[in-house]
Amino acid sequence: MAFPVFALPTLAPSIVFAILFVISSISLGWRTLEHCRYSYFLFFVFSFLRVAAFIARALWSQDYTSQSKAIAAGVITSGGYFLVVQPLYAVFTEWVDRIVGLENVSNLEKRIIRLIKALIPLCSILGVIGSIKQFSASSQEEADTGTNLRKASTLGFLGLLIILLFNTLIYAQSYSNSIESRGAKRATKKSILVLVIGCLMLISGMIYRTLIVFEPTSDANKKEWYVYVFAFAPEWILMILVSVINLEDILEKDNLNSNLALAK
User: Fold this and answer.
1) Which run of H or of E encompasses 105?
2) Which of 17, 27, 169, 39 has the alpha carbon at shortest distance from 91?
3) How far apart are CA 103 and CA 261, in angstroms?
4) Distance of alpha carbon 78 from alpha carbon 223, whole angstroms
5) Going from the N-terminus, what domains does the chain have, and what CATH number goes with each?
6) Number of other residues whose CB lies within 10 A of the CB of residue 223
7) CB-count burial class (<10 Å; 0-12, 13-18, 19+) for 250
8) Keyword Metal-binding: yes or no (predicted)?
9) Which residues have CB under 8 Å from 120's CB, separation 6+?
10) pTM over 0.85
11) End-to-end CA distance of the chain
């Protein structure tokens, strides 16, 4: 079967964006070493995987008939997405703990947060399986299954990001004016800035991805510049934002070594 059209890559923009994400990877790598925060580490890995994705897209641009290069580009792009959503939720939970105290959050809210954190990697897994099935499909049925999995992945991420944005705005409206500590006020301003801008950047990309998955014949799925403007550029802006803004005083409990030890 023919490959599904997903803004087939060309060489020049793939190289340009690979270089841009190399810059953000270096900056985030330095932040990770400087502050030893797990969320910085996840942002760094995400940025580094975007470099790999654009290298794969550059290689694919030289051979559109290559199934392995198409799958590699799709898998790396889809598989690493949870790495940019997970740390945003970490910023949110640490901020809520700072201004309210997680012990004062209702059990229902705690269960919802735990459920959401479990759903984040699941959405990436669905995207990876969907990309593999769609690009390697030997029948229309397999291609449709891959498309449906990609739809579930994009809608899942879109929903999780909208939930995060609304919760950020609700907590900001409810508690920001009652904060007295100067450190907590500074952390609140940084948290709201990162969360609101981060969610808006990623939501714009998810809306674009939702459009091309549900409407594969649309112009957005035929012209390459759409994917860079609406999907990849916002991600890079977020990487630069979290590189510039020091999140150390927000992520007080987000120790890299402790989290890696728990993962073993």
Assistant:
1) none
2) 39
3) 24
4) 20
5) 11-259 (1.20.1070)
6) 11
7) buried
8) no
9) 82, 85, 86, 89, 160
10) yes
11) 41
Q: How many CB atoms lie within 10 A of CB 1?
A: 12
> What is the identity of the amino acid at 50?
R
The tokens 């059990």 sit on which residue? 107
User: What single letter denotes the amino acid at residue 96?
Assistant: V
pLDDT in tens, the chain (264 residues): 444 445 578 899 999 999 999 999 999 999 999 888 889 999 999 999 999 999 999 999 898 888 888 888 888 988 889 999 999 999 998 888 877 777 778 888 888 888 998 999 999 999 999 888 877 877 888 888 988 999 999 999 999 999 999 999 998 888 766 666 666 677 788 889 999 999 999 999 899 888 888 876 666 566 777 888 888 999 999 999 999 988 877 776 666 655 544 444
Cβ atoms 148, 126 nearer than 8 A: no
